[in-house]
Amino acid sequence: MNMTETSLLVFIVDDDREMRQSLSQYLTKAGCRAQAFSSAQAALGALQTTCPDVLVTDVRMPGMSGLDLLNTLAGTGNIPPTLLITAHGDVAMAVEAMRAGAFDFIEKPFLPARLLDVIRKAAAFGRLRAENINLRERLRRLSGLDAVLIGECAEMQRLREDIEDAADCEASVLILGETGSGKELVARALHDLSSRCGGAFVPVNCAATADELFESEMFGHLAGAFTGATRTAPGHFAAASGGTLFLDELGAFPLRQQPKLLRALEAGEITPVGSSSPRLIDVRFVSATNDDLEERVKTGSFREDLFFRLNTLVLKIPPLRQRGGDVVLLFNHYLDHFARIYEVEAPPVSAEDAALLIARDWPGNVRQLRQVAERRILAARRGRGSVAEALNSFAPDNNPHLSLKQNVEHYERLLIDRALTAHDGQIDKVTEELGIARRTLNEKMARYGLNREDYIYKPAEIRS
Hints:
Radius of gyration: 31 Å
Shape: elongated
CATH architecture of the largest domain: 3-Layer(aba) Sandwich
Low-confidence stretches: 1-6, 396-402, 460-464
CATH class of the largest domain: Alpha Beta
CATH topology of the largest domain: Rossmann fold
Helix content: 40-55%
Strand order of the largest sheet: 2-1-3-4-5
CATH superfamily of the largest domain: P-loop containing nucleotide triphosphate hydrolases
Number of helices: 21
Largest sheet: 5 strands, parallel
Strand content: 5-15%
Structural class: alpha/beta
Distance between the termini: 79 Å
């Protein structure tokens, strides 16, 4: 007898009184706590308030069968590890029950020691399952899935569920979404919730890597492999080994390098530039795109076999304009976020503000919304501004009838206005950020009617 066995609570359900008594006595002598029930209905009542470590039930019983009991528990989402006691003719039914969630079945007649052994295994399975559930909840909180992927619309709720389902799966994931919708946040959530969370998360923007350097940066190179290669470099794939490699802007992956990516996916190996020996890698692939890859496959600019290897699982992020009230929810979240950063009270969002936010098209999605919220807080620091002004300041193309010169001037004024706001009117910092001379800045501020005094931060308690 050990401490693990003495802590086990076993429910026994059998309409045969002698079977119930003999099993209860044997398990009690073995150090378990046994509680017997003459019917599934009686056991179901007790299961409403107590969850045993293991449930042992006969299959064939009057009224509610063991299989009926299992299915009823499945509907509540609270199934303890369940063992079925079956006669020879009930094996097919027992297999069906295992598919429904039973742990195992024991065929009559059986040795009590055999039952005890399976009970121990079932209890260990139950503990492991509970630990995994608790770990998943902790990881969910650590990854901030609800906090990072904010939203109450059905699409966002479904996306969070899909992320949790896909996290521990080793299959490749393709994330689809418009620019600024949060594709990297989804990729990081997949990594944080997976068993690879202790490994590296390596994001790679395929569109930002020069073509001539793409192969060496992705797959690594040996010293002397090409001019300027003074030392050996592992590359992104090797850096992500044991973790997750996130390929953003997947459509920009060069066609001539795609066979090497396919090889990495299929064989789990890469060949660095300048090497003739492949190297094994252990990488989970997550990629993202806002391109129509199926169309690119048709035009021959993306390999079909690679496309089907990368899109084993597909996650779709809805654009912000389709998320209804989530826009206001997100805006308030970012207002509070930037209010803490800039140490100012977040201004309230009125019904008119909410209507303006929801009516917007948001071509830049959440990234654009975040910038508008920051703009609103920066204006609030100076005791002025509104949601409407913050929205309009991020729309240099409001008037499509403006000439090219007028659009350029409008955008130039916007950039100067942003820099003055960010630096509280400190001219030296503004000129440094914009890369222009002080005299040039003064001339442009005069031309656009921008007054430095309007940007100097005044704490709320001394505002007039």
